[in-house]
Amino acid sequence: MDELAAARRVMGAGSVPAGDAYTIEVRRRYAAQIDDVWDAVTNPERLRRWLRAVTGELRLGGKFELDGGEHGEILRCEPPRLLKVSWLYGPDADAWPGTSEVEVRLAPGPTGDTEFELIHAAVVGEPLFPTYGPGAGGVGWDLALLALARLLADGETIDHEGIHRSPEGREFIRRSAAAWGEAHLAAGGDPEHVAAAVEATTRFYAPDPT
């Protein structure tokens, strides 16, 4: 829960090649040097330990694929401060290029730590938004950044499946969905839509045990 509280969540507006976009932004600080954090988000061996296994041409202009089906192209790479990729998911996603992008920005902190910012922009009208709101991607990123925090702190790899089953993990998901609901409200979301989206997101990431 301390890791959940360490992040600031904002829902905003932006653009992607396909048009106007909404953004989910996560900002936090990691107690690690910037080169270490950069390595964790670009080194395939470390990336698989907090996000997913990655394959492809891992260079500027190259295409990548994660073993969960997420894929895209490396649009910008400016070590050790900025990485931007297109971010598509599912077998039909390639029919809709330019609809989703993820950008990671790093900056050295005042005490040898690192300021971390992740911005995920998705085209307005993205089909998951009416049901799940910003939590559709936000909860997933919160879970991934929890795993990144563990990796940077002590090299530990989190069992993602175990998180979804454990009482502590399910509470983390519930609070993450609620936090994205608060960000949605702050961005002007309709309270009834926000409440329904938070409930739907919680059920998706932490369904009732059967």
Please provide a written account of the structure:
By secondary structure, the protein is of the alpha+beta class. It has a single domain (2-205), classed as Alpha-D-Glucose-1,6-Bisphosphate, Chain A, domain 4, CATH 3.30.530. The protein is 40% helix and 30% strand. The protein is built from eight helices and nine strands. Strands 1, 2, 3, 4, 5, 6, 7, 8 and 9 form a nine-stranded antiparallel beta sheet that branches. A hairpin with a 2-residue loop joins strand 1 and strand 2. The mean pLDDT is 93. InterPro entries: ASHA1/2-like_C (IPR013538), START-like_dom_sf (IPR023393).
Give a brief description:
With 210 residues, the protein is α+β, with helices and mostly antiparallel strands. The protein is 40% helix and 30% strand.
Itemize the secondary structure elements and their pairings:
Blueprint: H1 2-5, E1 8-16, E2 19-30, H2 34-42, H3 44-50, E3 54-56, E4 63-66, E5 70-78, E6 82-86, E7 88-89, E8 100-108, E9 114-123, H4 129-132, H5 135-154, H6 160-165, H7 167-186, H8 191-205
Antiparallel strand pairs: 1-2, 2-9, 3-4, 4-5, 5-6, 5-7, 6-8, 8-9
Family: Belongs to the AHA1 family.
Protein name: Activator of Hsp90 ATPase homologue 1/2-like C-terminal domain-containing protein
Pfam family, one: AHSA1
